[in-house]
């Protein structure tokens, strides 16, 4: 796609599907700031996003990864992706990890506990989830919390304590979600203390 056409489309309001179709065809000389702005709007653990992201020019990938740590109110999935890329030292592997999280979050509850135990054995999944939950990003997902609870390590618990403070401020469904996640977590002394503190 020609640069002028791509940038004109990127400047025009579009549905996510239409935007992803344009992002899939970004020219190498596209305005990286404009492309990054739009990418941050549609970044998600979905096949559509990952397939588009695999085609991003290197300059765009570099700018996206540089932008995420500085972004105000970044989505937790963005932090997860950036950390997964850092740990695996691969954009492609980071995207695979993000999509794997999305697949996990789509599982029926009865299948999630055993799958979480498998995923946390992979450093990319675990460290990315720890970073996303501990960050100031928005929209930390239940799946991220479940991975940390399944791991039960000191680093995971430290991140969960940050989520606990957020949950206490929010109350209601957010606090109940954390209670439910911890109830199915690893049986470690510190997680037990957290569960008891929420009773």
A few lines on this structure:
This protein is an all-alpha fold and 199 residues long. It has helices at residues 3-10, 16-23, 32-42, 47-53, 58-67, 76-88, 91-105, 109-119, 123-134, 142-151, 154-170, 172-183, 189-198.
Annotation keywords:
13 helices; mainly alpha; 72% helix; 2 domains; 199 residues
Number of strands: 0
Biggest sheet, in brief? Answer: none
Number of helices: 13
Proportion of residues in β-strands: under 5%
Estimated helix fraction: over 70%
Radius of gyration: 18 Å
Terminal CA distance? 57 Å
Number of domains: 2
Alpha-beta classification: mainly alpha
Q: Give the ordered list of helices and strands.
A: HHHHHHHHHHHHH
What gross morphology would you assign?
A: elongated
The low-confidence parts are none
Overall average residue pLDDT: 93
Structure description:
- The chain has 199 residues and is mainly α.
- Helices cover 72% and strands 0% of the residues.
- The protein has 13 helices and no strands.
- The radius of gyration is 18 Å and the shape is elongated.
- The mean pLDDT is 93.
Draw up the topology in text:
Blueprint lengths: L2 H8 L5 H8 L8 H11 L4 H7 L4 H10 L8 H13 L2 H15 L3 H11 L3 H12 L7 H10 L2 H17 L1 H12 L5 H10 L1
């Amino acid at each position: 796609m020609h640069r002028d056409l791509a940038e004109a489309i990127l400047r025009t309001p579009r549905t996510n599907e239409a935007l992803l179709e344009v992002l899939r065809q970004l020219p190498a000389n596209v305005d990286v700031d404009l492309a990054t702005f739009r990418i941050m709007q549609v970044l998600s653990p979905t096949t559509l996003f990952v397939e588009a992201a695999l085609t991003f020019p290197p300059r765009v990938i570099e700018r996206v990864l540089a932008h995420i740590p500085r972004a105000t109110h970044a989505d937790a999935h963005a932090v997860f992706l950036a950390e997964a890329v850092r740990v695996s030292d691969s954009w492609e592997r980071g995207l695979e990890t993000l999509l794997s999280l999305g697949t996990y979050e789509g599982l029926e509850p009865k299948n999630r506990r055993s799958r979480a135990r498998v995923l946390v054995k992979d450093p990319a999944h675990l460290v990315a989830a720890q970073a996303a939950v501990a960050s100031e990003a928005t929209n930390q997902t239940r799946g991220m919390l479940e991975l940390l609870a399944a791991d039960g390590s000191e680093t995971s618990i430290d991140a969960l304590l940050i989520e606990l403070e957020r949950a206490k401020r929010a109350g209601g469904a957010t606090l109940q979600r954390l209670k439910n996640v911890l109830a199915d977590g690893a049986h470690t002394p510190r997680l037990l203390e957290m569960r008891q503190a929420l009773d």
